[in-house]
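As a warm-up, study this chain.
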Amino acid sequence: MKEQLVKAMQRNQIVNMMYVSKNGEITKRRVKLIKVIGDSFQAYCFTRQAKRTFTINNVLAVVPVLQRERIVV
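Now compare it with the structure written out below.
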């Protein structure tokens, strides 16, 4: 998982991530990785609209966002 996160960071990609929080809640997050530090990483979370720190072992899946979704006005 760490390798996938590092690749996404190097490619400056936004990714969709399935994540288990400390209290066991599974959430889907759209994040842009900032840096990987040991067993955790910092990323900008578009769901929370803030910079957050995540534990790599709590990441269930990572999928790169290949296209931006079109906004219908």
